[in-house]
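Hi V.,

Quick status before I head out on leave. The structure for the redesign project is tokenized and pasted below; the design run finished overnight.
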């Protein structure tokens, strides 16, 4: 059976026009859950906040909504969409040190970018004021 996964984010409903074939609703649900996890991870990787208000609607071709997967359920570990158990891995101390250094560098770079953007805004405002004063002098 063909199922469609419509994504509801903070601003819009992104319709799945193609859909995908699944044996049953349970299989479609597992795919929707994994897709939601992938989208959450992508948001984190891009430095954005967790999309806790987002949802995936599992629908049939006639736009009949069968089920909705709430991202908040995945993030909070509630109910039937509880996160998968974590696999414990031994992490080398050098990797931890490198990750911390990278994080510190990213934070420093972020602060510098914000500072430069603030200076740029101030300079643009000053330029706008100069431009307006020159228009009045003509």
């Amino acid at each position: 059976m063909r199922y469609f996964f419509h994504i509801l984010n903070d601003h819009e409903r992104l319709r799945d026009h193609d859909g995908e074939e699944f044996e049953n609703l349970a299989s479609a649900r597992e795919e929707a859950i994994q897709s939601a996890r992938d989208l959450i991870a992508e948001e984190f990787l891009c430095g954005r906040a967790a999309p806790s208000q987002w949802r995936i609607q599992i629908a049939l071709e006639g736009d009949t909504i069968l089920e909705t997967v709430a991202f908040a359920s995945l993030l909070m570990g509630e109910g039937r969409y509880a996160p998968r158990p974590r696999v414990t891995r031994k992490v080398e101390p050098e990797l931890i040190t490198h990750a911390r250094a990278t994080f510190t560098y990213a934070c420093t770079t972020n602060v510098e970018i914000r500072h430069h953007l603030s200076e740029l805004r101030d300079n643009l405002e000053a330029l706008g004021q100069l431009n307006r004063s020159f228009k009045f002098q003509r």
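Above is the designed sequence. The chain has three helices and five strands.

G. will cover questions while I'm gone.

Best,
W.
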